[in-house]
Design a protein that fits this description.
This protein is an alpha+beta fold. 21% of the residues lie in helices and 25% in strands. The protein is built from 10 helices and 23 strands. The strands form 5 sheets. An 8-stranded mixed sheet has the order 14-15-17-16-18-21-19-20, sandwiched between helices. A hairpin with a 2-residue loop joins strand 9 and strand 10 (126-131). Helix 2 (238-250) crosses helix 9 (423-440), helix 3 crosses helix 9 and helix 7 packs across helix 9 (423-440). The longest helix is centred in the C-terminal third of the chain and has 18 residues, at 423-440.
């Protein structure tokens, strides 16, 4: 599984070379971790780790003590610089078995773990994802790992027959998307069309959705197009939930959705990097490319999904009957709270000011969207992104944005407490993005009846794991190293079952 590597580690904010003496080549597969010197068959409590499943990621496990394990993220395929996403299962546990997992080779130093973020967990008997309590999570520089940042979390297994799954954030797989789109297609809606723009390197489908009233697609009809993309960075799973929220709203029978379909054509590519998603990469494609740096000249063989989307956008741009008015690329952010946007800077002051209108309107519609965190830039390192490239290509009536949403939480106006995102809260942001086009195009008077309020985020009472809570709490340990790694964490474990 590993080979020696002479190259020393180097640190960068976007990624670094492998911070270990070994190259991690693949995921662990039903790997039983035995104590050093142990002989014989595995016993109950000898943990079995697995990440050989869709979107899984765990490259190596080291047994430190009876209670403590060092975990190594597998780097993105063909690119050792990116190590953030993890997603793995643990089985063969004992009831009330307490452990500490140390994720030791993150490629980023800045992290929302400093602000209270915690890994996700579910099990076979409790299939809803929950956050591990922030009080059981530590993020600190560790002298045992070349002073790299380590995220340690304590956990108590409480059901022997369960298989437990841990992840960086809520997973959203390629297969889940295919099932979702299959279900939409079976509804035979005349305003919904699904087609394939091409195939990825590993022959996965690049889906393109068109949502609009059929009259807008008649030959010769003029079209106002909103183009939306997501998951160019495969580990940024919240973007898929936001995108699904947009789709769900636009295909619904809500009066606002009907008006939007009558006046606009929505083109949505919900997963630009299906290979990276399937493989459990964080940022790159199968071949190790950050696709969001290759918009200027995508290769049909190395970046086929990006090439297909760009080709379509250029065709629409050259069609005098089509006005591509919006391009929004959805991402997730690993160091900031809330939803927010990045936009472009233009020499034309009026165009620059017009560009600020949509995020201002979105801020009024979505309590978790922050206009104060929204920024406009033309950084050289962003030159190959969809937002920057298309912002330079399209005419001055088009607006290109990156929509970011936090991996962790949002802070409501006038408060300082963080509200952790749920899958439903991410989708609610998507619904609010869709509704904002009604305000932007001043179509409110065309809605048949008074607007129904956007459904509130559902609050479900879930069967809890030992020590888990429904709401996140601030991480008072962020950035600090506990005095004793094993003992300090284990003391924070609760001693009663909920």
């Amino acid at each position: 599984m590993t080979t020696n590597m002479a190259e020393r580690s180097r640190t960068a904010e976007t990624g670094s070379a492998v911070g270990s003496d070994d190259i991690i080549a693949g995921n662990v597969s039903k790997y039983t971790v035995l104590p050093v010197g142990y002989c014989g068959l595995p016993k109950k409590g000898h943990l079995i780790f697995d990440a050989c499943f869709e979107s899984g990621n765990l490259g190596r496990v080291d047994h430190i003590t009876e209670f403590e394990y060092d975990l190594f993220i597998r780097p993105d395929t063909c690119n050792p610089r990116f190590r953030v996403w993890f997603n793995f299962t643990v089985e063969n546990v004992k009831e009330s078995q307490r452990v500490i997992f140390n994720v030791v080779n993150f490629s980023k130093t800045k992290s929302l773990y400093r602000d209270g973020m915690a890994p996700m967990v579910k099990s076979t008997s409790r299939p809803k994802w929950q956050r591990i309590p922030s009080k059981n999570v530590y993020y600190y520089r560790c002298p045992d790992h070349r002073k790299n940042y380590v995220m340690s979390f304590a956990f108590c297994f409480d059901r022997e027959d369960d298989t437990y799954q841990f992840a960086y954030c809520y997973p959203y797989t390629y297969t889940r998307l295919q099932h979702y789109l299959d279900n939409l297609q079976r509804r035979n809606m005349d305003y919904f069309c699904r087609e394939s723009l091409g195939l990825s390197v590993q022959k996965r489908q690049l889906d393109l959705l068109t949502i609009t009233s059929p009259v807008n697609l008649r030959p010769g009809a003029e079209q106002k197009v909103v183009f939306i993309t997501a998951r160019v960075h495969p580990g940024e799973t919240p973007s898929s939930f936001v995108c699904q929220g947009i789709i769900d709203f636009l295909v619904s029978q809500h009066p606002v959705a009907k008006v939007l379909r009558d006046h606009l054509v929505f083109k949505i590519a919900p997963m630009l990097n299906p290979d990276g998603v399937y493989l459990g990469n964080y940022r790159c494609s199968l071949m190790g490319f950050d696709l969001n740096r290759h918009w200027a000249n995508p290769s049909p063989w190395a970046h086929p999904t990006l090439h297909g989307v760009k080709q379509l956008i250029v065709e629409m741009y050259n069609n005098p009957k089509i006005n591509l008015e919006f391009y929004i690329d959805i991402h997730a952010h690993s160091t900031m709270m809330n939803g927010f946007m990045y936009g472009n800077i233009f020499e034309d002051e009026e165009r620059f000011q017009r560009q600020a209108v949509f995020p201002k309107l979105l801020c009024q519609n979505a309590e978790d969207f922050s206009y104060s965190s929204t920024s406009f830039n033309r950084d050289a390192v962003k030159a190959g992104t969809g937002r920057r490239f298309l912002g330079g290509l399209l005419n001055d009536t088009s607006y290109c944005y990156t929509l970011e949403v936090s991996f962790y939480s949002y802070v409501l106006g006038g408060t300082t407490s963080a509200v952790p995102y749920t899958e439903e809260a991410y989708m609610k942001l998507g619904r609010n993005v869709a509704r904002t086009f009604l305000d932007y195009y001043r179509l409110n008077s065309l809605v048949e009846r008074p607007l129904a309020p956007t459904p509130k985020t559902r609050k479900e009472k879930l069967p809890l794991f030992k020590g888990t809570t429904q709401r996140g709490q601030g991480n008072s340990h962020a950035g600090g190293k506990p005095e004793k790694r094993s003992q300090a964490l284990l003391k924070d474990q609760p001693h009663s079952r909920r």
